[in-house]
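To illustrate the input format used throughout this study, we show a single complete record. The first block contains the structure-token representation of the backbone; no residue identities are included at this stage. The design step must infer an amino acid for every position from geometry alone.
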């Protein structure tokens, strides 16, 4: 931009540059100015969106109806979709959160890149932690378990391993149930405990 501006000034005031150089310098200057303007507007918009989002979340109040009088233990599940989690803030929640399940793997080759960070962050704040695998119904169950086994951290004091199933198989329900059972049996043999199935009621019933 400064280069183009210098050429423009020299050409206007000194009349020493050819016309083509003036056109070129002006064109470059205009394009750079437009790029700078768009960049500035984008940054302003991002700050506005961020501020609006912060105000939106700050204006929400927690639903504390479950707090205090329930016979159930409450927990959450997290994955990289939750971004960077401020675990001390989670710990201060008015909800009676006791445990955190952290996604480890997905299918036969997917790995949640925030798994270890989330697991250790939750542990540091005193939550009971567990690890879960997102089951892809159309991929080989043995390869899925091997993926989980390779990356999962299952230690004494952790909650039992979890299998998250949310989607039907294109090969039918019978094949899905068979694959799930096989995954669970492999996990039970490996860890010596019966794993937990994590799903929705509607999915389970249908």
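Output of the design step:
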């Amino acid at each position: 931009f400064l280069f183009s501006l210098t050429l423009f000034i020299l050409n206007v005031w000194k009349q020493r540059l050819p016309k083509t150089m003036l056109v070129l310098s002006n064109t470059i200057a205009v394009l750079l100015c437009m790029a700078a303007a768009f960049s500035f507007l984008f940054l302003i918009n991002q700050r506005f969106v961020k501020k609006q989002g912060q105000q939106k979340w700050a204006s929400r109040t927690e639903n504390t109806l479950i707090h205090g009088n329930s016979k159930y233990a409450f927990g959450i599940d997290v994955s990289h979709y939750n971004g960077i989690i401020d675990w001390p803030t989670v710990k201060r929640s008015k909800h009676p959160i006791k445990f955190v399940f952290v996604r480890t793997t997905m299918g036969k080759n997917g790995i949640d890149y925030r798994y270890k960070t989330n697991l250790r962050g939750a542990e540091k704040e005193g939550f009971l932690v567990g690890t879960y695998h997102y089951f892809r119904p159309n991929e080989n169950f043995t390869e899925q378990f091997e993926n989980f086994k390779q990356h999962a951290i299952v230690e004494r004091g952790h909650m039992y391993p979890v299998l998250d199933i949310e989607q039907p198989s294109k090969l039918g329900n019978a094949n899905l149930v068979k694959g799930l059972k096989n995954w669970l049996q492999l996990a039970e043999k490996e860890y010596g405990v019966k794993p937990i199935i994590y799903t929705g009621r509607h999915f389970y019933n249908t």
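Structural context for interpreting the output: The chain has seven helices and six strands. Residues 52-59 have pLDDT under 50 and may be disordered.
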